[in-house]
Amino acid sequence: MNIFFNLYMKLDHSECNVANGKRLFAYIIDWFLGSLCTLLPMCLLWMMWTKDMETMAGVNVLVIAGRLGDGKAYLAGTLSILFALFYYVYIPLKIYPGQTPGKRAMGFKIVKKDDSKADLKTLLIREVIGVMIIEGSLYTVSGVWHSMLSLALNLNLVGILMYAGLAVGILSGFMILKINSRRMFHDYLAKTKVVEYEEYMGENKSI
Q1: Cα 103 to Cα 194: distance, rounded to the nearest angstrom
Q2: Which domain holds residue 81?
Q3: Taking the mean position of all CA atoms in its chain, how far away is CA 90?
Q4: What's the pLDDT tens digit per position in 140-175?
Q5: Number of domains in the chain
Q6: Where in or outside the cell (predicted)?
Q7: 9 falls within a domain
């Protein structure tokens, strides 16, 4: 118990001004729009290759590999990951600094722990390593790379990776509910936090 208590005390307990409800609604928006963005190239390629719209809803990397071969599966998976990177990394880097569409709709943004802008390295660590890979059950793109890795190794790792990511995601959920800073695992990994947009911009006129 002392180990867990010591770990708990080492976490960031500073107050966060972004309500959990806002983060939840932002996640729902980003999950929906991000999923559409991620699956768009895969579905378009599937229709182009097969002309089969009836099974399009269930298409994934492994389905494409089984029906059309590994090469087309890797192509579809790679394009899906690139589209996901556009949504989760490029948009908050270049279009709405620090904000995905969901965060923008809810009025908060990602910044570094020292209140400076989230740069490319920070977003890659947070969104790709933290969310997509380690917390690998939060977004649709996680399932894409799980399937691509399974295909490459000729092992079905989808379930194992999904449940491992889910465990980390549950830990993150506990952190956001029980710790004042509301920083999740990927925030600690990337040294980021979320702040109210208007308040942050008011305090940082030059940003």
Answers
A1: 9
A2: 19-202
A3: 13
A4: 999 999 999 999 999 888 888 888 988 998 888 888
A5: 1
A6: Cell membrane
A7: no
